[in-house]
Each structure stands twice: as C-alpha cells, then as structure tokens.
C-alpha cells in the first residue's frame, strides 16, 4: 500500500493517508534511537516511511573524522556536521581540468545497493540517488566562490567539467535503471533564501541542458524523476517542469507560500517537504508540530501531489519530542 500511495500521489490522485518520509541527520538519529531504545536500522520502519533511497556514493575514511568522497574531495566531519562536513582543500586550484581525471563510478557498488534495496521486502517507493549531482559536484572540486566566478568568465572550463560529471552520472543512471527502481533522485542546490545562487540565464545555459539529459534518460525508461534543491527556485520551476521533473524536494515554507506554490505549480509537480526545519521544528511545541503537519497535508495534499516530510534531513537542534510528534502526526492522519 505504501508504494501505491506514492504512485497515486505522483499521479495527482487523492491518497488517504498522504505518503510521508522523514530522514534525520546522524546526531539526531542517535538521540532518537537512544530515546526509543531501538537500533538505527529500525528507525526507517519506526517512522513508517514510504520512500527508500539507494545512495550511490561510496567513499573512504582516511581518519575517523575525514570522509573522502568518490571524486577525491575530503570533508572534515569533526565538527557539529557529521553528515556532510567542511571541505579541507579544493582539488582544482585553477579553472582547468589538466592533471585531474573524473573517476570511473563504482558500478559494482551500484549493483550492490540497488539489489539490496529491491530485495529488502519493504513495501516502499524506491529511488536510486546521486547527491551533489552537477553544480555542487563542480564547486566541491573548485570552491563555491571560485566556481561562481568561473560561470561568469570560464565557459570552456565549465562546459568541460560539467561534461565529465554528466558522463559519470549517466553511467550510474544506466546501471541503476537495469533494476526495477521506481525513479531516480538527484540532489543539487541552486537556491538561496531569496532567488538563485546564479542568474536564471546562467542556470539555463550551463546546468539545465545537463540536468535535462539525466531526466530524459530516466523518463525514457518509464521512471519518475525527483530533484532536491534547497532555496528559492521560483525563477526556474517552469524550466524544471519543461524538462520533465515529477517531484520537487524540498518546499521550504519560509520561502514559498504553500497555498501559492500549490496553486501555481501543483498541477505539474508533486511536492516533497513543506514542514520547516528552519523556522518551526527546532522551536515550536510538540502540539504545534502536529498542527503544522496537518496544515501542510491539508494544503499540499489536496488532489494528490504531496509527500509529507520535513524540508531537509532534520538537524540535531530539533528536540526529540518534536520528532515523535511529527511521526505521530504522519501516522495518525
């Protein structure tokens, strides 16, 4: 029934209850598991989640606090952020690829994760996933400020880098689509609190064609496409619809009016998120959490097209009591 609810929601059909999914950062997951006296492997089922993801990013741990991702970028996770961290050093010192080679993806790892997810016996909607898929991958190699400058003045380098990143991604997508996954989920943050990190014209010139190529690969296989992107994407939501986006995650209510975005784009997009980890979950009472969740479901769930969820992986500043309240609100619709 869970998988069918998501299928119905994406088809913009009313579902009762509305499908839901909650994901926690590592520090908060540890707190919640300690409180509930359950193992981390039991948390997904405790939430009664509807969505699973096979995250195709296999890295290494040179030390207990440093994670090296598949592109060789080292992330210092010794601070409060145990899920992403801070980049220790940028690999591409200059706007040129000379001397650096985008790696070959570990397709055996894609096989391993895909097979494990498909055969885990859960009634869930199953996504393959690539995070840091284009823009974020590029700036993680070059540095955010450097790469934003490159977008303005180093067109040849930018195009060459995106071409190689896209080739890497396509190999993963091709392999993942050999399995009966329901869709593919890409992560790439383009927005800030108001507007994009770059001009819409720049996004359309450099990012949209590469994103469209990935979407087309997935859509031509009859699967759904989901995109995670933080911030205000108002200027390009129409573009994303044009290239085939089915599910938009995450919808931040501190940025969008939920009624307005539902009215303007709800006929074309399924919204995933809508419950703020920025302005609500860390600060309000458990009863208010339930009220906020019910209101989001009422607005965004009308005529389908909604997956109820926090706007991001929930950070450690959210009280455990509020996580329990949110889970109860989702389970007891």
Helix/strand layout:
Blueprint: H1 2-10, H2 26-36, H3 43-47, E1 51-55, E2 60-63, E3 66-68, E4 74-76, E5 86-87, H4 107-118, E6 125-130, H5 135-142, H6 144-153, H7 155-176, E7 183-187, H8 200-220, E8 224-228, H9 237-242, E9 247-251, H10 258-265, E10 270-275, H11 286-300, E11 306-310, H12 320-331
Q: Please report the distance between the alpha carbons of the first and last residues.
A: 15 Å
Q: How many strand units?
A: 11
Principal-axis shape equals globular
Total helices: the number is 12
Structural class by SSE content: alpha/beta
What is the assembly state of the chains in this entry?
Answer: single chain
Mean pLDDT: 96
CATH topology annotation: TIM Barrel
Radius of gyration: 19 Å
- Low-confidence regions: none
In the sheet with the most strands, the strands line up as: 1-6-7-8-9-10-11
| CATH class (first level) name | Alpha Beta
Describe the biggest sheet?
A: 7 strands, parallel
Number of domains: 1
Describe the protein's architecture and organization.
- The protein is an alpha/beta fold and 333 residues long.
- It has a single domain (2-331), classed as TIM Barrel, CATH 3.20.20.
- Helix content is 42%, strand content 15%.
- The protein has 12 helices and 11 strands.
- It has a 7-stranded parallel β-sheet with strand order 1-6-7-8-9-10-11.
- α4 (107-118) crosses α7 and α11 (286-300) packs parallel to α12 (320-331).
- It starts with a helix and ends with a helix.
- The model has no long low-confidence stretch (mean pLDDT 96).
């Amino acid at each position: 029934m869970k998988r069918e609810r998501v299928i119905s929601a994406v088809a913009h059909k009313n579902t009762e209850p509305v499908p839901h999914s909650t994901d926690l950062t590592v520090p908060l997951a540890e707190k919640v598991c300690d409180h509930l006296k359950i193992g981390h492997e039991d948390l997904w089922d405790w939430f009664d989640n509807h969505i699973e993801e096979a995250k195709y990013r296999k890295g290494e741990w040179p030390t207990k606090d440093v994670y090296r991702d598949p592109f060789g970028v080292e992330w210092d996770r010794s601070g409060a952020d145990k899920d992403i961290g801070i980049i220790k050093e940028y690999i591409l010192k200059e706007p040129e690829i000379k001397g650096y080679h985008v790696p070959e993806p570990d397709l055996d790892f894609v096989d391993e994760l895909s097979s494990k997810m498909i055969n885990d016996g859960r009634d869930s909607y199953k996504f393959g996933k690539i995070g840091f898929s284009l823009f974020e991958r590029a700036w993680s190699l070059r540095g955010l400020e450097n790469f934003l400058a490159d977008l303005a003045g180093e067109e040849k380098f930018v195009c060459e880098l995106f071409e190689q990143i896209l080739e890497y991604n396509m190999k993963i997508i091709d392999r993942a689509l050999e399995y009966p996954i329901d869709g593919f989920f890409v992560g790439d943050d383009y927005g800030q609190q108001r507007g994009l990190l770059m001009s819409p014209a720049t996004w359309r010139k450099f990012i949209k064609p590469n994103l469209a190529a990935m979407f087309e690969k997935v859509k031509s296989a009859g699967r759904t496409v989901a995109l995670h992107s933080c911030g205000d994407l108002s200027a390009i939501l129409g573009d994303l619809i044009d290239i085939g986006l089915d599910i938009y995650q995450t919808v931040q209510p501190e940025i969008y009016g939920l009624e307005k975005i539902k009215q303007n784009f709800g006929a074309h997009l399924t919204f995933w998120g809508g419950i703020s980890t920025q302005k609500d979950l860390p600060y309000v009472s458990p009863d208010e959490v339930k009220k906020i969740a019910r209101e989001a479901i009422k607005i965004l769930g009308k005529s389908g097209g909604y997956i109820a969820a926090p706007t991001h992986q929930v950070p450690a500043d959210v009280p455990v009591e509020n996580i329990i309240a949110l889970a109860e609100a989702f389970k007891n619709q």
